[in-house]
From TrEMBL:
Gene source species: Pseudomonas fontis
A family per Pfam: EAL
Protein name: EAL domain-containing response regulator
Entry keyword Phosphoprotein: yes
Modified residues (4-aspartylphosphate): 56
Length: 406
């Protein structure tokens, strides 16, 4: 097992010593300590990259924000834990900033930290690191950057749908979300973040979306659940696709082509300011809903006009993003946001799906709030079709007791 290297930035000598001892108690002995940002930067330049940086915010001189920006720009920390006596809202806002800067934030904690909490975060780091998709060196990506739009279009067979299961607290599989990966012959499996900008700039986002829709419907047509029903599938639809006059008819044609009932298909739409549908396009969505297709508003709460759009468009599902859910077991503010969204959904007669369920604590918090449908790494990561088929069989035979869901 890889021995973790951890940096602690803490200007209070007693708390610095206590954190050091807690790390030792959790089997972490390669610990760098610093009482100022300057000393932390010197330690990193001398000792190299760390697995985890534990960062205080309030201190004399440069505050923790300066170290966080330095870590993001230098790449000298794989993950970050923010630990401060600042207000809860300030700590969470710093965490959001760190994520925007590209850092992986394991936790945003108020002092004092406990050994048990640190142990959970260390375990989370080890789990995520062991399962993380290998990164592709920037230099190798030049092979993709030199491709023309026509050459990119010829790579379509390499755009393969992976599927992340959605489950309910009673142990039922409620369906899967199709999430595309690029199975490149030399670069390996690429995540959307690595190739979506390239696809979008080449004007191929629509072609990619239709390709994933076809794969998802083919999967649904071939998989029968234990109750005899076809597997429900959810597909992400970019707003610009909705604005095509033939969008609704193309979806209907695809359903007929795969002999799949409309009720198994959920179209997940990310709301943006640019998505302004005219009466014909709205009519097409209504036709799909009348046929039985489901319509989900994705990343609810992150757009500027989500509430208005809920009233304008015929949504049947509200989907809460991982930003609101991750860590809600320890954060009452996040739990309040999720509870409010679920109340809104119930009053609008909408189903709720919650993304980003990553820990047992998050699972328990959701159980206390009303038991919505869930997806997240704690349940299952996105997986290829062959792995999904095995997963479905195993879970239908064994149930979800091991997740604490049943």
């Amino acid at each position: 097992m890889h021995e973790l290297k951890v940096l602690i930035l803490e200007d209070h000598s007693f708390q610095l010593m206590a954190l050091h001892q807690m790390l030792n108690a959790n089997g972490v002995y390669d610990v760098l300590t610093a009482e100022s940002v300057e000393v932390a930067q010197q330690a990193l330049s001398r000792r190299g990259r760390v697995d985890i940086a534990i960062c205080d915010l309030q201190m004399d001189g440069s505050d923790g924000l300066e170290l966080i920006r330095y870590l993001a720009e230098s790449g000298l920390a794989a993950s970050l834990i923010i630990l401060s006596s600042a207000e809860r809202g300030v700590i969470d806002s710093v965490g959001s900033l760190a994520r925007q800067l590209g850092l992986r934030v394991l936790g945003c904690l108020q002092k004092p930290a406990s050994s048990a909490t640190l142990n959970k975060l260390l375990s989370l780091y080890r789990q995520v690191s062991s399962e993380a998709m290998p990164s592709v060196p920037t230099l190798d990506m030049t092979e993709l950057l030199t491709l023309s739009a026509a050459s990119l279009a010829q790579c379509q067979p390499q755009w393969v749908a992976h599927y992340q299961p959605k489950v309910s607290f009673d142990g039922c599989i409620n369906g899967v979300e199709a999430l595309v990966r690029w199975h490149h012959p030399t670069l390996g499996v690429l995540s959307p973040a690595q190739f979506f900008p390239l696809i979008e700039s080449a004007g191929l986002l629509g072609a990619l979306s239709w390709h994933v829709l076809e794969q998802a419907l083919a999967l649904s047509a071939s998989v029968r659940l234990e109750n005899g029903q076809q597997l429900p599938v959810a597909v992400n639809i970019p707003p610009q696709l909705l604005m095509q006059d033939d969008f609704g008819q193309r979806v209907i044609d695809a359903l007929h082509r795969h002999a799949v009932p409309a009720s198994v298909l959920t179209l997940e739409i990310i709301e943006t300011q640019d998505c302004q549908l005219d009466s014909r396009q709205l009519e097409a969505l209504l036709h799909l809903r009348i046929l039985g297709c489901q319509l989900s508003i994705d990343d609810f709460g992150t757009g500027v006009s989500n509430l208005q759009r809920l009233l304008e468009l015929p949504f049947s599902e509200l989907k809460l993003p991982s930003e609101f859910v991750r860590g809600m077991g320890q954060d009452g503010r996040k739990a309040a946001v999720v509870a409010g969204a679920m109340i809104t959904a119930r009053r609008l007669d909408l189903k709720v799906v919650v993304e980003g369920v990553e820990t047992q604590e998050d699972l328990q918090a959701l159980k206390d709030l009303g038991r919505p449908v869930m997806q997240g790494y704690f349940i299952a990561r996105p997986m290829p079709e062959s792995d999904l088929r095995r997963w479905v069989v195993e879970r239908e035979q064994g149930g979800f007791a091991q997740l604490g869901v049943a």
